[in-house]
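#struct-queue
[09:14] JT: dropping the first one here, sequence first, then the C-alpha cells:
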Amino acid sequence: MPFVRIDALRADGARLDALGRAVHDALVETIGFPPDDRFQVLVGHDGASGTLRYDDYLGIHRDDDLVYVAITMRSGRTPAQKQALYRRIAELAHAYAGTEPRNVFITVTENESIDWSFGDGVAQYADSSEVDSPSPTVAGN
C-alpha cells in the first residue's frame, strides 16, 4: 500500500500516466505490492512559473525533464530492495516516458501500520491494541 506522488516538469497527461505506470510496475516487481494496490497523485508543472527547482547536486546534471517521485510506505524493506526499486523506476521511466534516468529523483518515507487509513476513519492495518486504546484528553480544550 504505497502512496506515490509524482511531480514532473513539462508533463502532459500522457507523460504523467506513463510515469505513474513506471513507478507502479517497479513497486510490483521489486517490492511485491499487489497489482491493484495503486494510490497516486500525478502533478505536471509547466516550468514557466518556477514551481520545481533543482541543481546539479552530486554531479548529476538534471534538466527540465526532471521528475520527483515521493513514495510513502510501511517500513520493513531492505536496502537491497530499495536499490532495486530505484533502479527499476529509472529504467521504466525511461522506457515508458522517455525520461532520462539522471532526471528521476526518488525519495522513500517509511511509517508504521497505524499511520494509514484507507477510508471510513479506520486504521485498517493497525493492530487491535492501537485501535482500541482511548483517545487522550487535552486539558483546556
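[09:21] JT: and here's the second one, same format:
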Amino acid sequence: MTKALLKTVPVAIGLFFIYTTIRGQEQVNTSGRMMQEEDRLTIGGYAQIDYNQPLGGGIYNEGGLDVHRMVLMFGYKFNEKTQFVSEVEFEHVKEVYVEQAFLQYEILPWLKFRGGLMLIPMGIINEFHEPSTFNGVERPNLDKYIVPTTWREIGAGFTGVFPTAALSYQLYLMNGFSSYDGDPLLGGSNGFRKGRQKGAESIINTPNLSFRLNYFGISGLQLGLSGYTGQTQSTLYNGVDKGDALAVAVADSSVVGLTMFGADARYLLGGLQLRAQLNYGLVSNSSAYNDFTGSDMGSTISGWYGEIGYNLLHGIDRYESELIPFFRYEQYNTHTSVESVMVADPNNNRNDLTFGLGWKMARGAMLKMDYQIFQNKGTEDSRQQLNAGVAIWF
C-alpha cells in the first residue's frame, strides 16, 4: 500500500496541475485576514479541544482529554500603511505563550516591512495552523519533528504580493534555534523542536535567513517553496575572548548549522482536497556537537506527506457545511543520515497513517474524528490511536 501511494500521489497531483489553468487567489491565515479588515481594532482567535485514546498492545491505555490550545488574536490598524498583529496562546490551560507580535508598514504596494515575533514561513501548517483549516484532530507529525510547528522567532524583513504574476514572497533575518544553554537542546528523537526560543528572552550570536515564495496563479492551487539557513545559538559564546582559541573552539562545538528546504502544494477542485509537503534539512557540525554534548543529532533530517479528502456536501448544503472523509500518509526521519561515527537509530525513522472524518458545521466551526497507525520503519513496531476533537476559528 505504501509503495502504491508513493507512486499515486505525485501522479495525481501532476495531472491536476496540468488540467487546471484558471487564475486563483492567494489563501490567507488569521493574521492575513485581520490585516485586511477595515476596522482599527480587530479581534480573532481559534481553539482546539482534543480527546486522544491510545489503543492495542494488550494493555490498558489511559486516554487524554485536553484543551490543547486557545488563542486570542488582536490586530490594530494605525493608518492605511501601518498595522500591528499579535497572537496570545494558552496551551493545556496552564501555559501562556506569545505566538506572534509584529509591526507591518507598507513602503510600496508590493513591499511591506515587518518586524517583531513572526512565524517562520516553512511548509503549510506552520503558517496555516488554525485547527479548522486542516484535516485530522492533530497536526501532521512532519510538522512537529521536522518543521517544529509552531516555529517562530524574532526578526525583521519584507513581504509582498505581485498580483499580475500571482506570486507572494517573504524574506526575513531572524534569531536561530538555541542548541546549548548548559544542556544540549537538540537530539535525534525530537530534532530541533526543543531549541525553539519562541521570543522568550532569546539569545542571538548570528542571524538566520528565512524565505518563502508562493504561487497562486491556477484556480484552487497554492504552490510553496521555502528555505531557511543559518546557525544555532549557544550561551557558551557570552564573554569569551575572541583571542582565546580554545574557548572559541569549545563554543563552536556547541552549535550546528541548519539549511532546510521545503516544497508544498494545496489544491481544491470542487469537493476534492489535495495536500502534499516535502522537507529536507542539512545539519552541519553535528559530529562535533554530539561529541561535545553527548547528543545524537543527525546530519540530515527529512520527511514528506500526501493527503486526499473530499467534501461530500459540496454543492448540496446551502449553509456551506462540509463533511470531509480524508486519508493522510506521512514519512519522516530525524536520522535520515548520521555522521560515520554514529549509527542511525531506527526508532527515528517513522511513518504515520491517518484517516478520519471532519464535519465543518460552518466556516470556522468543526468536529473531527480520526484513527492513526504509527510505525517505526526500522523496527516494525507499531501503535494505534483514536482521536476526536472540537476545532474553532473566528
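[09:30] RK: nice, looked through the second one.
[09:31] RK: Residues 2-19 form the longest helix (18 residues).
[09:31] JT: good to know. The mean pLDDT is 91.
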